[in-house]
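Researcher: I'm preparing a figure for a lab meeting and need a structural model of a single chain. I don't have an experimental structure, so a prediction will have to do for now. The sequence is pasted below. Please return the structure as tokens so I can convert it later.
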Amino acid sequence: MEGNELGLLQVYTGGGKGKTTAALGLVMRAWGHDLRVCVIQFLKKGEDYGEVHALRSMGIDVYQFGSGRLIIKDRHDQQDEDCARRALKFSNDALTSGEYDLVVLDEINVALYFGLISCQEVLSALKGREKHVEVVCTGRNAPPELKAEADLVTVMEPEKHPYDNGLEARKGIEF
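Model: Understood. Here is the structure written out token by token.
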């Protein structure tokens, strides 16, 4: 890769807050420079996310693939696997379409950790993307193989969080 061309793979992972928020900050920056952006959310469904409202009002493509239920490792069902597989297929199409400069695969790391999709399938989709497509993969527990393939890995680690004192998620701040 020469100069400042697009096409890198970024991974935002770790147990701390802010992975999706950081990715969406990059989305805003890219959009502000007239890049074509797509956000694909694995495991998420619902219109109550403030960022989804904002992105769609700006004309940014946001697609959600989730059952709308909380998923726990080793306690998912076929519907959860089907949603993740549809998200991966859609992601592959977006990565190879030539329509986008930046594609965010939000919570894909968690889908991998839960075993809803395979790391080999994800790596294949990432390696097969159009050369100029920058990709951001978010979520806790990014697998070592994905981190090894990445050009940039950011691990967000919690030091202190209001959840620890019983504060629940706040509309407009955490969602």
